[in-house]
């Protein structure tokens, strides 16, 4: 690793510690958010007295005239989340970090969760900034892929084994035009 890269990473980590420290929440609760920011995806963290999940919502701001755009990612960190509601059924292929292959699982199309606290990080790829704030709301609703991710992470917190039909149960079929 180049020394300038190492310096940039250390500086970023220092700013990260400072911003998360402003929320008076145990640092461990932010692990899912940090992973979402740095690696992507949704994550969960659980101890006997602390649970947190991160869920991403991704939007694209695209100008059809100039044919350019950028994404805006929101990472929602929920402290000690609980189910409020689930609606719909979607069958989808999903891979959990602990498994080697994807499986066919069932997820709700939309979910509503409540949490003790909700922190939102909005990443602007256009401005190269991460804006962090605490939501004044104690509930949040997700739909589509964000709901799938939230449901998956809630299963981890509930220590539910994520099971589904393995990929090798599918059959190939040639399609001829």
TrEMBL record:
Native source species: Methanolobus vulcani
The signal peptide stretch is none
Query: SUPFAM superfamilies annotated for this entry?
Result: Peptide deformylase
Taxonomic superkingdom? Archaea
List where this protein forms a coiled coil. none
Q: What is the lineage of its organism?
A: Archaea, Methanobacteriati, Methanobacteriota, Stenosarchaea group, Methanomicrobia
Q: What is this protein called?
A: Retropepsin-like aspartic endopeptidase domain-containing protein
Tell me which residues make up the Retropepsin-like aspartic endopeptidase domain: 32-133
């Amino acid at each position: 690793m180049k020394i300038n890269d190492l310096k940039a990473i250390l500086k970023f980590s220092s700013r990260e510690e400072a911003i998360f420290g402003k929320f008076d929440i145990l640092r461990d609760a932010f692990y899912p958010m940090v992973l979402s920011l740095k690696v992507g995806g949704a994550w969960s963290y659980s101890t006997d007295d602390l649970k947190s999940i991160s869920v991403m919502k991704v939007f694209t701001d695209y100008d059809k005239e100039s044919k350019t755009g950028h994404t805006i990612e929101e990472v929602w960190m929920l402290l000690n989340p609980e189910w409020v509601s689930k609606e719909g059924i979607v069958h989808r292929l999903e891979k959990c970090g602990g498994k080697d292959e994807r499986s066919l699982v069932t997820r709700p199309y939309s979910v509503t969760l409540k949490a003790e606290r909700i922190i939102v990080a909005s990443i602007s790829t256009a401005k190269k900034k991460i804006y962090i704030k605490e939501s004044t709301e104690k509930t949040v609703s997700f739909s589509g892929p964000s709901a799938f991710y939230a449901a998956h992470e809630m299963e981890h917190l509930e220590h539910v084994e994520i099971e589904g039909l393995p990929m090798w149960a599918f059959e190939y079929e040639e399609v001829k035009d």
